[in-house]
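Quick one:
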Amino acid sequence: MKMTHPNGILIIHPGTLGDVLLALKAIRSIRDRLPGHECILLARGEIGRLLMEYGVIDRVIAMEGPVFSELLEESPRRDQEFTDIFSRYTHVVAWVHDSGGRLSENLQRVGIRHRCVISPHAYSLRALHQSDRFCETLELGMSDTSGKTFLPHGRPQADEPLLKIPIPSIPTKQSKPVFMIHPGSGSRHKCLSPERLSLIIKRLAGGDDRTVLICQGPADEKRVTALTPYLDQVSYKIIKDIDLPEMARVLRQTDVFLGHDSGITHLAATLGIPTVALFGPTDPQRWSPKGDHVVVIQGPACKCQDWHAVQHCSEKLCLTHSVEEVVEVVERCLRGAGIEKPQRQLVKIN
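Output:
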């Protein structure tokens, strides 16, 4: 007989890496308030495997599989396999926009009594930072049919660390500092030009005194290809074709990370790596990584009214960060001085 886990929590999060990492505080809150429950994440497979490796969740169901798409169908299948899957769960948290209510209705059909289906982008939410908005959904959206609250009232403290990741032993670092830069992002409209980035890298390379790593994710090939011709006199290594758990292991051997508003930047910050995040058209008050080891350098104020305008903007003034200021901040980290900024302090570049 197949064993089930009647005290399972299913968390549905269809977002990209940065979006999921912004939900870590809320995920940990769920686990803390429902001890003894198995926690399963329905998300993009690689992201789920990363969080499972670090003990954030117990199991992962890949978003690329049939389960999520079936839940959005008008009449989801009710065969034994599908029933077995959902017999494991007593609670479901779905951070999904469900305008027609189909997902919530189908969760009820398969027997989930305790349901929270709410988007972290909902207009009803009051919190500013996205990680706090995820926590707020747990208070506004959760109830059960017995009249008891799904989770105890009260939010985690704002200064609570996002995630306490167990750090296994790793090989001893080489003697010279390791500096990693991620030239890409989920959108090219959030990235500094290759010319400006190359000036920063050249200033920071330090001859043979430092190891320079360039992170190339699956969508970054064009960005890296555009950048490398400007680095003809710089010694560097491109890190590519590795999965997220392996990228996390590389990041943990990095002394300083520099990136844009991207999932890899959030991963570096979540791992506790001294992180310098370059923000342009997106709002760091909502989207930046948190932590006193993080400095956000924001470019000149963006004049675009919405994302459509950003996509059609040719000037990109908000991405004309001062090379000198960026280098100064990263140098301070590389010298081992640390980031002498209070939590979420922003360095404004005008």
